[in-house]
């Protein structure tokens, strides 16, 4: 479980880096190394569809993705060895796929992102509410702290998943019966970030 935050990519933060972003990034990279040591193929699960602007699954194209729309032309790929063919990077990859591909390349470069249901491991790229502090992009809604607490509890403590969206319920099911280790939990920029490893698979 990792957040879908562009700030994970150092080139998007600038120099010197933000200490809060550095802490989140360190936890996410730790999670990537954990999964890379246990799974060669990763399937990405997110709150929205993992398709390009044309509706096609980006993983089928063999192309690279790029964070150029977020401020820096950082290329990422879903597989070792770089993109296939002579097409340039696709600027329309959804953010969760970009983040998962960056994680793969940064922490487990021999891993492969796949759309197959029988992948060795799952990468949930999910954010909590974007309303948790005064720095929140969605405005501060203190009552949403309970929503984030429920999301964390469902994934990491076997709490009820009723009322959560489909992706968070899927994460709760994947972690059910296993031992979840929380590597990071916080909202340094007003968005709920959870980094956790484990699961029943």
Describe, in plain words, how this protein is organized in 3D.
This protein has 201 residues and is of the alpha/beta class. It is 28% helix and 14% strand. It is built from five helices and seven strands. It has helices at residues 10-13, 19-36, 95-107, 145-156, 166-175, and strands spanning 41-46, 65-66, 75-76, 112-113, 121-125, 181-186, 193-197. The strands form three sheets. It has a three-stranded parallel beta sheet, with helices on both faces. It has a two-stranded antiparallel ribbon with strand order 2-3. Strands 6-7 form a two-stranded antiparallel ribbon. β6 and β7 form a beta hairpin. α2 crosses α3 and α4 runs parallel beside α5 (166-175). The longest helix has 18 residues, at 19-36. The mean pLDDT is 91.
